[in-house]
Automatic annotation (TrEMBL):
GO terms for molecular function: heptose 7-phosphate kinase activity; heptose-1-phosphate adenylyltransferase activity; phosphotransferase activity, alcohol group as acceptor. Its EC number is 2.7.1.-, 2.7.7.-. The keyword Lipoprotein does not apply. It comes from Riesia pediculicola (strain USDA). CDD domains: RfaE_like. It comes from the Bacteria. GO terms for cellular component: cytosol. Catalyzes the ADP transfer from ATP to D-glycero-beta-D-manno-heptose 1-phosphate, yielding ADP-D-glycero-beta-D-manno-heptose. Residues 349-438 form the Cytidyltransferase-like domain. This is Bifunctional protein HldE.
């Protein structure tokens, strides 16, 4: 059965952390201030969005999950806006009001879509207010039976001073804890289920990583030292890296088309991960895949934003999120990994530049029927010259363009070697299709494929036969 997005309406997520209110003021700059050499912005519109842990809650709710939010706010206008938005979005909450303190609030000022200033209003929780921080643990104790998964959203504002106690409590109830970490001290997240740092946050703790191997090594060391089950590192435009305590690793590419704003992308990532992780129908790899797609959607939006279940499904089922088209050899591994946990069956054929004709198109259509995805590994010009094949009427570029127009073809992989054995070894397709078995290299690939089928053309149609692999 192929991987699909399940219904999340019965999933329950408890979000705990630093609540932020993000304000966006939009206006027009028409003059320079007489008071100082700075622009004067005539504000035309204002927008308030929930940020921090509240944004995590919003994103989880937009995917259909039931969400409960616990955090700290001040006794001020911003806290009233936060409450009003949570009520409007039907998110359950239990907020602790700190007297004489401000709700963490950020103002971003824009002129003609260009941000020109940001103002922050915040006060970190001081030791004398530790009694209020301890109230969070009491709230968690009351609400813990609600949760299938707990998310700790740490922005370093003070709501999660007792992180280790919350993690211990969750462990006693056998509830997974996903943490969006902050700062240099990751020890306070010890024995949580998963951390989701970005690369900068990760390197702040473990030191600079010169290459992927060093990053993986330090990631596995962190998993062992902190007794984690896994760690998910976001790598900006390079995608994400998942490492687990079972020495499993998975790289997923970025599916971003056009980055507009990265504010809150980590909130969307961990919210989607938590919702998917709480579903018994999805594996950890699949949950990471969905969170990666969600994050790629949200960075294409303006301001602090969220992703709806409809948007997630739409992008999930689009071709654009799965490296469709011409693949470089360095993209093969990621593509195959994606197919594996999507439980898609890969079919592979080998083609040459002089084979583009109606019968060959029918051959590809027939081959595609044996699986979910069709890869055409095609000899490029230099290889054909080496093989001394003549009557090649199409250039490499023309052949690629023609094949990409066919609905049956998902990926094209050009190769220069005399034999496609190296490509087949990397892909390990479920089904390998050929029109003959007399090629000198075909028997060498049997060890890398699930099954081989020979398609014979007769009476204007193709007939297939299985080849027994010994």
């Amino acid at each position: 059965m192929k991987f699909s997005i399940p219904n999340f309406e019965k999933n329950r997520i408890l979000v705990i952390g630093d609540i932020i209110l993000d304000n966006y003021w939009y206006g027009i700059t028409e003059k320079i201030s007489k008071e100082a050499p700075i622009p004067t912005v005539n504000i035309k519109s204002r927008l308030s969005k929930l940020g921090g842990a509240a944004n995590v809650a919003v994103n989880a709710s937009r995917l259909g999950a039931r969400v409960f939010l616990i955090g700290l706010v001040g006794n001020d206008e911003s806290s009233e806006i936060v409450r009003s938005e949570l009520v409007r979005l039907k998110i359950l909450f239990d907020l602790i009001v700190l007297p004489n303190y401000l709700t963490v609030t950020k103002f971003r000022i824009f002129s003609k879509n260009q941000q020109i200033a940001r103002m922050d209003f915040e006060e970190k929780i001081k030791e004398k207010c530790s009694e209020y921080v301890s109230y969070i643990l009491e709230k968690v104790k009351k609400r813990i039976s609600f949760a299938q998964v707990i998310v700790l959203s740490d922005y370093g504002k003070g709501a999660l001073y007792e992180t280790s106690k919350i993690i211990d409590l969750a462990r006693n109830y056998k509830i997974p804890v996903l943490v969006d970490p902050y700062g240099k001290n990751f020890e306070k997240y010890k024995e949580s289920t998963m951390l989701t740092p970005n690369l900068d946050e990760f390197e702040l703790v473990v030191g600079k990583c010169s290459n992927n191997s060093e990053m993986e090594k330090k990631g596995f060391e962190m998993i062992r030292s902190l007794s984690l089950e896994s760690i998910l590192i976001t790598l900006s435009e390079k995608g994400i890296l998942l490492l687990s305590n079972k020495e499993h690793k998975l790289y997923l590419p970025s599916f971003v088309r056009n980055v507009k704003n990265v504010t809150g992308a980590g909130d969307t990532m961990i919210a989607t991960l938590a919702v998917a992780f709480s579903s018994s129908e999805l594996s950890l790899d699949q949950s990471c895949f969905l969170s990666n797609i969600a994050a790629s959607i949200v960075v294409e939006k303006e301001n602090t934003s969220d992703v709806s279940i409809e948007e997630l499904k739409r992008r999930f089922y689009e071709r654009s999120c799965r490296f469709f088209g011409i693949l470089r050899e360095d993209q093969i591994k990621n593509t195959v990994n994606i197919c594996k946990f999507l439980k898609e069956k890969i079919v592979m054929v080998v083609g040459y530049l002089d084979e583009i004709h109606l019968t060959y198109v029918r051959y590809l259509n027939r081959a595609r029927n044996f699986g979910d995805r069709l890869i055409v590994a095609i000899n490029i010009d230099t290889s054909i010259e080496r093989l001394k094949l003549k009557n090649t009427f199409y250039s490499t570029e023309n052949t690629m363009e023609i094949l990409l127009q066919l609905k049956s073809v998902d990926w094209i992989i050009p190769f220069k070697e005399k034999s496609p054995e190296n490509i087949v070894r990397k892909i390990k397709p479920d089904v390998f299709i050929s029109t003959k078995i007399c090629s000198s290299w075909i028997e060498n690939i049997f060890r890398y494929v699930g099954e081989v089928k020979i398609l014979n053309f007769k009476d204007n149609r193709f007939y297939d036969e299985n080849v027994k692999i010994v």
